[in-house]
Amino acid sequence: MGAACNIDSRGRRFRAVIGFMMVIIGVVIAAFAHHWGVWRWPIASIAILLGLFGLYEARRGWCALRAMGFRTPI
Question: Residues 24, 52: contact at Cβ < 8 Å?
Fold first, then answer.
């Protein structure tokens, strides 16, 4: 039982790009934001997890917000 496809190829591409960018941002924060102290790890982890979720959405062709009834422009 899988999620039904609810986005088109444009939405999939957009989510893949945003997801990849979020993973990169999270890795950069983890590697270089030493001045943030203890906060860099939770922020980097959240960015990476959101990026991975965006990549999952792109791969499956499924958008969590659309599944909850919200209309997204892409």
Answer: no
Per-residue model confidence as pLDDT tens digits over 41-61: 999 999 999 999 999 999 999
- pLDDT tens-digit series, residues 1-18: 566 788 899 999 999 999
Question: How long, in residues, is the chain?
Answer: 74
**DSSP code for 61:** T
Rounded to whole angstroms, the Cα distance separating 6 from 9 reads 10
Bin 63: left if φ > 0, else alpha if -120 < ψ < 50, else beta. beta
Closest listed residue to residue 12, CA positions, set 51, 47, 59: 59
What is the token pair recorded at 26?
């999270």
